[in-house]
Amino acid sequence: MDSKIPANPVPPATPVDLASAVPAPRPPLRPHPGRAEPPPPGPDPLEPGLSPAHRIAADLDGRLGDPMDDAAGPFSYKAIVEAEERDELPPGAVDTVRAWGFPKYLVPSGLGGRLTTLEELFFVTRGISRRSVTVAVMYGSGLLAVNPVWLWGDDRQRRTVADGVLNGDLACFGVSEADHGSDVMASESEAEPEGDDLVLTGTKWPVGNATRGRFVTTYAKTGARDFSLILVDKNELDPDTWSTLPPVRTVGLRGHDLSGVAFSGARVPADRVIGRRGSGLVQTLKTLQITRTAIAALSVGTMDAVVRIGMEYSRRRTLYGSDIYQIPVIRDHLVKAHLDLLIAECVAIPVARCLTVAPGRLSLWSSIVKYFVPVLGEEVVASIGTVLAARGYLREGVAHGVFQKLQRDHAIASIFEGTTHVNLANVAGQLPFLIDQPDGTGGPGDSDADELLADLFSWTRTPPAWTPDGRLLQLTNEGRDEIGQRFDVMSEELLTAANAHAAPGVAAELKELMSGIGGMRAKVEQGIRASDGDTSSVAALARAKRYCELHAMFSCVLTWLHNRHQFGGPFADGQWLVLCLQRLLQRAQPDTLLSEEFLPSLEDAMFRNFDEGRWFSLLSLADAELTGAELTDAKDE
């Protein structure tokens, strides 16, 4: 690779001291000064423009400040690391996000909150996670607990929980038990009917927010083979019938309330069962589809943080007479980490939009996201660890030593809401039904599929508002995967558009890449057909892994196809798409090389975002007119 640092054609908004390479104290998405709450959801007045999720994230990011700035308050890396050493959250961190209104994004707009689309929650969670995964997980645990109430609860349950969460109460999801883990059918907690009550006995451990949480959405046996979700309000219980367990000592997430709760004859009104009695297993499986998707925001936020730390170090650290970004292997690590982050955006954002666009597809796509994006995150963290070398091992120095915290905290992303292997098994179980798409779907002229993909992948479309209804979520995709089943149609559209509109050389590269990707796809399909229903072997999981990688490739292609007209600039040129597909192909073919001639525009965007303190994102490749209009601050409006 050419070791020359690209020139930055756009000067930073604030002068940058290149000797220290600390980014200018300008938040990635600038704030609206003086606003007490985030902007309300609704149509964006700018045409064309990004969906409101970007503007909401801009407001929060501005409120939290630049984490590299020691004076940025509780969300500075300095404050975060100091609190970490005490196994605490930074003083004032929770108050800050509450004052901004983050709890409102856990409550649907129809119940007085601001949760309109999962895309909005995804972006604000990403913003928090690039500073403190611990704070994001605290609220993520609450989201998992309250979603069953939104999806199946009655009016009283919804109102009680909504009022509590909006007033700052936390919630927890009491499913896990020490001896059973993910084997929920073996759960020993019981809720025995007695008059108008249920008598609850059992211990849930480990559970996020178990001690601090007011509400405990509790998974318990209500019949010989029936399990239900029960809304337990600690404020209503006899104090002698329940207790919390000591905090669990963890590798990461220090300061997070991970503990347990034990019930011993706790009386709960029978009408606290959420939805129909005996439906707890199905409700749990469906609820996880939402939080599995949201967890990807933890990974994308962490990737943004560590790439920024790696770039800061690579420009400050001098070896052999120049900064270490000049060393080809360091440049290679940082460029590939940046590409991985862009790929993660392409994979995660459409599935976040899926909750309100096509909730019936989440059973498959949420597991793909939950497997693939945290794995990418782990690889990016490891790669930046290589860049930092010995400095990455220290609990001080570069960014106050926050890298080691981010590394430990992010490890939870592959464990929460089903481990990597659980989610691959979910994908593997559906593969035999996906290779032969249902009649009349996915082919040329399928207007329904075309419109669905446009709603999922067009960043300038606002997804429909969420009206929670558990009936819309499905346990399987019923053989439908509009992203994976339209390869031929997508390939033809891609090559036609690239030949007409992409930068020189892009179309030829894409033609070769799509030919190779088509061969991979055919090999996976051949393996599925030859396996005769095998969905649980090591080979089946390997096919599921490859299917997830193909899904990521298709998501990158569809992101380009559905945004190139609106975004313009280097985004429309398509060079980044070639690089992302090459990067993904390296997972199956490690000797695949990145096209060196396409790297300068990517590196321009990397350095511009670093200098200006902005998020690393595909938006940096769009025309400045679009993102500048969308992400302006109040004084410019």
- The best one-word shape is globular
- The strands making up the biggest β-sheet line up spatially as 2-3-7-6
- SSE ordering: HHHHHHEEEEEEEHEEHHHHHHHHHHHH
Low-confidence stretches: 1-48, 629-637
**Helix percent band:** 40-55%
Question: How many helix segments?
Answer: 19
Number of strands: 9
As a percent range, the share of strand residues is: 5-15%
Largest pleated sheet? 4 strands, antiparallel
Mean pLDDT figure: 90
| Structural classification | alpha+beta
What is the end-to-end distance?
43 Å
Radius of gyration: 24 Å
Structure description:
The structure is a single chain. The chain is an alpha+beta fold. Helix content is 49%, strand content 9%. It has 19 helices and 9 strands. The protein has a 4-stranded antiparallel beta sheet with strand order 2-3-7-6, covered by helices on one side. The protein has a 3-stranded mixed beta sheet with strand order 1-4-5. A two-stranded antiparallel sheet has the order 8-9. A hairpin with a 2-residue loop joins β2 (190-194) and β3 (197-208). The longest helix has 37 residues, at 280-316. The radius of gyration is 24 Å and the shape is globular.
Attribute tags:
three-stranded mixed β-sheet, 9 strands, disordered N terminus, single chain, 637 residues, alpha+beta, four-stranded antiparallel β-sheet, 19 helices
